[in-house]
Write a structure and sequence with these properties.
Layout lengths: L2 E2 L7 H13 L4 H7 L3 H4 L1 E4 L2 E4 L7 H13 L2 H9 L26 E2 L2 E2 L1 H20 L12 E5 L6 H9 L9 E5 L4 H8 L7 E6 L6 H18 L8 E5 L2 H7 L6 E3 L16 H7 L1 H20 L6 H16 L3 E7 L6 H13 L9 E2 L6 E4 L10 H6 L6 E8 L7 H18 L3 H10 L4 H11 L7 E8 L2 H22 L10 H15 L8 H14 L2
Parallel strand pairs: 1-12, 6-7, 6-8, 8-9, 9-10, 11-13, 11-14, 14-15
Antiparallel strand pairs: 2-3, 3-15, 4-5
Helix pairs in contact: 1-4, 4-13, 6-11, 7-11, 7-14, 11-12, 12-19, 13-19, 14-19, 17-18, 20-21
Bound molecules: 6-O-phosphono-beta-D-fructofuranose.
Length: about 550
């Protein structure tokens, strides 16, 4: 395979960034703040209802000038416009990438193959409105005439992570009668745990799969149907099973009436699909008006990304800062730290969004890249992470850039908690930036009267290197609109980085090999003969056959 200069390394800005980095790598953020009292104002931006403080990064104005020049040189604006215009930028699957159309106003005209997609988008939204209204009002009833109390979404990847994360995030807005459940894993423990809690009389299953062929989802859906039919019979299935898919035929073959199917389209990628009918659990949980606010929040961020100059474009800035650390400082992971319990699924959601989009090693033309692409994305809510892995981030050997996310106002009435939460969030960012020098440790310990020999022994352990970068994303409060904007912010950050690295952010061929191998290994585990694999796989299969009595 030919090795190519990537979109990034082929630019003049890259050469300039390399020399700039040779100086910047020794900068201390403490000094940068001491020299420039306006740093917070200079390096913060508002857009789409969110605020980003990016002053605690190892940057100065020249860094940002060079990074924006890089974005222009790789053609970020042109590719962004091509995405919004419905061009087939997913080149390996010959598809347009139009999740932005799903949240555009009804009167917009957005064409794919000469056809305006907006009437169809809004027809399905109306279908979702009608259905979610009926479930919430109790008009949609189970076989015994009772209102639905439990909704079980069966899906995986983008057909699970988006709706689950959003339903969790909007928990305070959920209809009090409804409990939302999400089953994704082919591991039967997942479905079993939910089925043991719900009553078939009042449970609605949403089978969500873009392709309606995904093995995990189809197996879970079949088992859920068998569970229901064994308790009630086939005749009542339509009151308890609906589907969300692009594949009407497979939905029908499964036994769900297409009347009860909510369609979407091949130009919606799985990990970008929560805005489509895949968001049906969200509409049911929080109501269609709130779902509309969620779409509008994302649209606000779309408009910001589409129109703001790169210098003040929040998703572009976030993406370019990521490139700065990944490709010049050589960092290999990014930690996501939402200081909001209701965003507990946000890092997992971003793992699919960023790592499935930009976890690629070839260019759009298929040449091997000469740059590192997507870092590992991971994290959990604050303050919990502080008492687990923040130790490594403060004093470990790796520099891990962090994105802090916080809401200024809570969605609860426990007034004393929120200032403590915010204080911890801001304190961590400050600690990462400033660290604590050996001199500071010494004088602090001396003031406490610690003996000199003990001070000497403890100073290295109690010193913090600091100079560890972070971004701070703030919103007024976590609402459907601000959540929509937050997700769209990360979608466009991911897009920006994909353009800089020159990859196709919209395919996911890397998931295929394991799927194919699993089929033949399953046959080896359950079939009459174990088949022939490599010695390790043969040994594992033999153990599984013995345990399962195959
Ligand atoms: O296996 C990866 C993947 O294709 C994801 O991209 C997608 O979100 C997920 O599987 C689920 O696919 P589907 O919605 O077709 O069941």
């Amino acid at each position: 395979m030919a090795m190519t200069r990537s979109a990034l390394t082929a630019t003049a800005a890259h050469e300039a960034l390399l020399s700039h980095h040779a100086e910047a790598k020794d900068w201390q953020m403490r000094d940068l703040f001491a020299r420039d009292p306006d740093r917070f104002t200079r390096f913060s931006v508002e857009g789409g209802g969110l605020f980003l403080d990016y002053s605690k990064n190892r940057i100065n104005e020249s860094t940002m000038r060079l990074l924006t020049a890089l974005a222009r040189e790789v053609g970020l604006e042109k590719r962004r416009d091509a995405m919004f215009a419905g061009e087939k930028i997913n080149s390996t699957e010959h598809r347009a990438v139009l999740h932005t159309a799903l949240r555009a106003p009804a009167m917009a005209t957005i064409e794919v193959d000469g056809q305006n997609v907006m009437p169809e988008v809004h027809r399905v939204l109306e279908q979702m409105r009608g259905f979610s209204d009926r479930v919430r009002s109790g008009q949609w009833q189970g076989y015994s005439g009772k209102a639905i109390t439990d909704v079980v979404n069966i899906g995986i990847g983008g057909s699970d992570l988006g709706p689950e994360m959003v339903c969790r995030a909007l928990r305070p807005f959920t209809h009090p009668r409804l409990t939302m459940h999400f089953v994704s894993n082919v591991d039967g423990h997942d479905l079993d745990a939910v089925l043991s809690k719900v009553n078939p009389e009042t449970t609605l299953f949403i089978v969500a799969s873009k392709t309606f062929t995904t093995i995990e989802t189809m197996m879970n859906a079949r088992s859920a149907r068998d569970w229901f039919v064994s308790r009630r019979g086939e005749q009542d299935l339509p009151k308890h099973f609906v589907a969300v898919s692009t594949n009407a035929k497979a939905v029908q073959d499964f036994g769900i009436d297409t009347q009860n199917m909510f369609p979407f389209w091949d130009w919606v990628g799985g990990r970008y699909s929560v805005w489509s009918a895949i968001g049906l659990p969200v509409a049911v949980a929080v109501g269609f008006d709130r779902f509309t606010e969620f779409l509008a929040g994302a649209h606000g961020m779309d408009e910001h990304f589409r129109t703001a100059p790169i210098e003040s474009n929040m998703p572009a800035i976030l993406g370019l800062l990521g490139v700065w650390y990944r490709n010049y400082f050589g960092t290999s992971s990014v930690s996501i730290a939402p200081y909001h319990q209701d965003l507990s699924a946000f890092a997992a959601y971003l793992q699919q969004l960023e790592m499935e989009s930009n976890g690629k090693r070839v260019s759009r033309d298929g040449d091997l890249l000469d740059v590192a692409t997507c870092p590992v994305i991971w994290g959990d809510v604050g303050t919990n992470g502080q008492h687990a892995y923040f130790q490594l981030m403060h004093q470990g050997t790796d520099v891990i850039p962090v994105d802090f996310i916080a809401a200024l106002k809570p969605n609860h009435g426990l007034a004393a908690h929120h200032p403590v939460l915010l204080a911890n969030c801001f304190a961590q960012a400050k600690a990462f930036m400033r660290g604590k020098t050996a001199d500071e440790v010494r004088s602090e310990m001396a003031q406490q009267g610690v003996p000199a020999d003990e001070i000497d022994a403890l100073v290295p352990h109690r010193t913090f290197p600091g100079n560890r970068p972070s971004n701070m994303i703030l919103m007024e409060s976590l609402t459907p609109a601000t959540l929509g904007a937050l997700i769209a912010l990360y979608e466009h950050k991911t897009f920006t980085q994909g353009v800089v690295w020159g990859v196709n952010s919209f395919d996911q061929w890397g998931v295929e090999l394991g799927k194919v191998l699993a089929k033949s290994i399953e046959a080896s585990i359950t079939g009459p003969q174990p088949g022939v694999h490599d010695p390790s796989t043969n040994g594992l299969i033999a153990r599984a056959r013995a345990a399962l009595g195959s």
